[in-house]
Amino acid sequence: MAVDEKTYKVVGTQPVRHDGVDKVTGRAKYGVDASMPGMVWGKVLRSPHARARIKSIDTSRAETADGILAVTTGEDYPDTGPGDYMDERAIARNRVTYAGQAVAAVAAISAHEAEEALRLINVEYETLPPILDVQSAMAKDAPIILDELRTETSGSFGNSPTNIAKHIIHEEGDVEAGMAAADHVFERSYTTSMVHQGYIEPHNALAYWNPDGSLVVESSSQGHFGIRDDLSKVLDYPKSKIRVIPAEIGGGFGGKTTVYLEPLAAVLSRKSGRPVKMTMNRTEVLIGTGPASGAHTTICLGVTNAGEITAAKIELAFEAGGYPGSAVGAGCLCAIGPYGIKNFRIDGYDVIVNKPKSHAYRAPGAPQAEFGVDCLVDEICEALNMDPLEFRHLNATKQGDVRADGTKYHTIGNIETVEAAMATDHWKTSLGEGSATKRRGRGVGSGYWMNGGGKSSAVARLNEDGTVTLLEGSMDIGGTRTSTAMQLAETLGIAIDQVNPIVPDTDGIAFTGVTGGSRVTFATGWAAIEAAKDLQAQMVSGLSDYWDVSSDAIAVDQGAFSQNGTTITFQEAAAVLHDDGQEIVGKSTVEPSGAGNTFALHIADVEVDLETGKVDILRYTALQDAGTAIYPPYVEGQMEGGVAQGVGWALHEEYVYDEDGRMRNSSFLDYRMLTSLDIPMIETVIVEVPNPGHPYGVRGVGEVPLVPPLAAVANAISQAIGVRIRDLPASPHKVRAAIASSTQ
Amino acid sequence: MATEILSGKVHVQTTINGESVDFLAEPRESLLEVLRDHLGLTGAKEGCNNGNCGACNVIMDGRLVNACCVLGVEAADSTIETIEGVASPEGLHPLQQSFLENAALQCGVCTPGFIVSAKALLETNPNPSEYEVRWWLAGNLCRCTGYDKIVKAVLQAAEEMRTEG
Lengths: 744, 165
Known about the structure:
The complex is a heterodimer.
Chain A: H1 20-24, E1 40-46, E2 52-58, H2 60-64, E3 68-73, H3 86-90, E4 95-96, E5 102-108, H4 111-118, E6 122-127, H5 134-138, E7 152-153, E8 156-157, E9 164-172, H6 175-180, E10 184-192, E11 204-209, E12 215-219, H7 224-235, E13 242-246, H8 262-272, E14 276-279, H9 282-288, E15 295-303, E16 309-321, H10 328-334, E17 344-352, H11 366-384, H12 388-395, H13 414-422, H14 425-428, E18 438-449, E19 456-462, E20 468-472, H15 480-492, E21 499-502, H16 520-547, E22 555-557, E23 560-563, E24 566-568, H17 570-579, E25 585-590, E26 598-609, E27 615-625, H18 632-651, E28 682-687, H19 709-721, H20 732-743
Helix pairs in contact in A: 10-11, 11-19, 12-13, 15-16, 16-17, 18-19
Chain B: E1 5-6, E2 9-16, E3 19-25, H1 31-38, E4 57-60, E5 63-66, E6 79-81, H2 94-101, H3 111-124, H4 130-136, H5 148-164
Parallel strand pairs in B: 2-6
Antiparallel strand pairs in B: 1-2, 2-3, 4-5, 4-6
Helix pairs in contact in B: 2-5
């Protein structure tokens, strides 16, 4: 449903994506498929202990074993200095802070030989009791995981050792006065478990350290420039000597935005003189890469009898994992995003625990932060006997409201999304009856995400047959070659099949930031638009030479060029210019700041089996403001995929730890992601409130659909069983326990 | 053919995508490793290596299997069909075409497994219900799509294949 009707020729259509045929025939080359002549295999030795000092590492037996070409340990890497711990995150130095951390790696002729050689490495650990939750880590007398750590608050550091890496504070208005003005004050605490992004392709890297000192790395990542820059830092090696080739990527969701295997493969290659390939198995992916933080949140809201929120006090404590850097910062910005609240204080804590160093996962920080707020809103609606959509409509963030960081919202589609939800068949249709053993409930959840800008580059090359080769710097994780090519085609007035988009390596295109934050269709799309404009201007200039008229005398319309009653098509112009000796290349780098914020609202119907505690999703509707939907089937796809991940987060997914801090469910059998049988068809409604900060009104769509499902599902279960669910996942045993508690 | 041990490796003769293939494999190597690392057939992917994600699905003697759970040496004298054999010189298989038209892939890494799995379904059940498609595909994990468009693509391809007869 478009709010602002503009007529586009290419934008909003449904072409077959350019990389589609390669991907349905199995020919697409993903990072895991990379190979080179002479290639050997690397494998990683990982810490079995969650918290330990490394007393010694003896690699002598592995180094002399048959078929072993190289061994590497933390000694081979420079100290990257304090702050982001890039060195230790790549490979441990003298301590481990989570079970699964890389401690050593070997290269061998075959992967099996490399794996066997790991057993020949003797690591002596002095183990320490692990700390596995934020409350224990924040306790007064908690053992300290990183001795040198001091709490950073607004740029200054505390004096005493701590497990709190960062304390973020956002304040606006007068919270005490706001609470005093409330008729009711509600306060509840919520927890969510650590969960994994769950991309199907494991991490991988193929590295070749050439004798001339140049390093070539091929891996699947969400940004090959970021991989190059991380490598440069971890290896203390010049960026100009590192070339990163972007392989096709088999899912990332934020988890493939940093290096894991790349530096190890590079050093093993330097030592062995061979190209070294490394891939993780699934267990390594789960225990050795960066999942999303588990979180403990406390939400306090003041409301009037009429349902107006007068003040909010939010405390978010996120598991950073073994090193600082959770997404709590973004969580703070998003926590109350859907609600326009004048008086608030938000405290965020980045807390070290002995779990994998957390990393970005789709709308990083927002699902954990907004979950509690939206569950409490549901509880308030129940207490005030208010319709949850009416409540959201009444309190919806509007243009001019202030976000946690002081930014004022521009044109946003929050109210439009709530109104669209009210108009859905789903909302208007009754839930239907359960049975003696099954109870039904309906829940709603809201979602907010900032969306991102950042730097993007594009080059558009005119070919003599009138096609355009679009070189763009963004790794394509799910159709963005096409969504950026569509914006180029729209700008040039040509058909989408006249554009051939490709993603060159780090030497083949100018710097482009990560594929993340829902920024690619927005920012790289914009770069494509600007490259198209540059190309078109050069074509006009070239034709002015050819026709010997001034550029001003040439009119451009729908891709055709005319002057003095003569019109030639885009294709004819390309041929004319080529024959005239002119080769035309348009280019641009943009760093737009006008990212349009996105709001979403989901409605979930569930049925709870009272005997088993199992929850089935009966019906699900997802709505969100996409701005202009450039490539609608892939906007829907993002929404549907986000729902499935979010429902998994709500119902099944969690990192299960034993008391020693070892993950006990590190396989796809036991780490339970949604299958096709676990979810019905998802109804999607794309609301289109164009973003005035983008030439075609793009906002970005990928992140926000992961946010609402946690609360929507929890609220639906709560309605079904009459007991509030405040601890995710709502796995059968927890739901059963909740039911039992209510019937005692 | 019977296998012969050559310095720890076993000689295996089999048929892959209609062509006779010989390879040497260590007895511990999975069929998936053989396909990907020895034969260059990288369309089948390793997502879990324990039979839970279906990304490595191939059809072996008419039966859908996870190539990660079959040993390479077990492939002797069998007939194997991989994603690389699904399209023909005439063009894409209806399932492949339907996946493209329905936007049934995002990152695409699970797509070969889904297509091979769906092909095995339609060979035994040309007219599946939505539930039957979902039940059959429950052995294939996709993390991007939420399954909607995959299920729709399979149902549409089934209909087209029935119409074409």
